Amino acid sequence: MKNIKIGIPRALLYYYYFPFWLKLFSELKLKVVISDKTSRDLLDRGVKKSLSEICVPIKVMIGHVLNLDKKEVDYIFLPRFRTIREDVVLCPKFLGLPDMIRHSLPSLKAEVIADIIEAESDDISQFSNHKKLAEELKIPKKEMETALKKAAEFWQRYRNLLYKGYLVDDFLGVEKIEVLEKLISKFENSSKLPQSQKEELNSSTTEEVVDIALIGYVYDVYDQYINMDITNKLKEMGVRVHTFSMVREDIIEKELAELRKPMFWEFTNKLYGAAEHYFKNQKIDGVIHLTAFGCGPDSMLGQILEIDAKDYDKAFMTLRIDEQTGESHIITRIEAFIDLLRLKKEQ
């Protein structure tokens, strides 16, 4: 089993669960291969094998699967996420993703492991969610359950740091579990404030610092290629960046309780709860909704957020990205938005 190579695509919910998965496979003594960072070539390969009407994050995922196949992995780990909350589902493309991959890439050499994820919360460490993985790799149930428990505990430590104000970006450059463990321990024991809590920033501008909530799915906000590295661009312009990953689940639940009816999609609900929290936070100067062109759930969420932003008198902007989005377009929009926020603070 030590010689088996498990490929993890650096796409979609990798940006949410990567510490969990890295720890899990480390405990199982399996070699993990992560696909390369998104690039123009990787995206183009995904686009060529995709239906034109699907959103860019799915096209990116197909590109990452092709990238892993070139690395000659034995398996590609591609869980079929159905739900992580009772009576609420995820985007339908998540549920059908393994089938879409198999039909789009019939020449794929690696075998796809696609356990169905059905959980009552973000904690997906139940054995039932990894039964196929255990069966395929002949891992005893007790060994798998032990590894899952350690992975869940490690993931929770990581999430606690996000709640303190760290960005997912602060951890994304790490692909080795040993390095990630050291980094998490370092941040846990550090007296230094994370970027979102600092009074002064190391930026290229001397103008007043502004606070912006960047609301979007993790694969839109943290894939630096498809979003033109928006987080670092905002930092360079003197912005303290806040994301939905920093908002605790109990706060999101409280905001969702005010909805007459939750939306059908779990991460859409999370974004709504986080955005409402930031709308009410006087420290936040403005909100940017980052969305992929053609995203069905976001078409509903965007309309709700736009209305609520007016009700709270909070500056709000929508940025749509796809495979054709240019960097100059992104920079122009965010520069104008930040100028607006600074003018409002001066009044």
Automatic annotation (TrEMBL):
DUF2229 domain sequence ranges: 5-247
Keywords from the UniProt entry: Kinase, Transferase
Transmembrane domains' residue ranges: none
Signal peptide location: none
GO molecular function, one term: kinase activity
InterPro entries in the record: CoA_activase_DUF2229, Dehydratase_Activator_Redct
Name the UniProt record assigns to this protein: Putative nucleotide-binding protein (Sugar kinase/HSP70/actin superfamily)
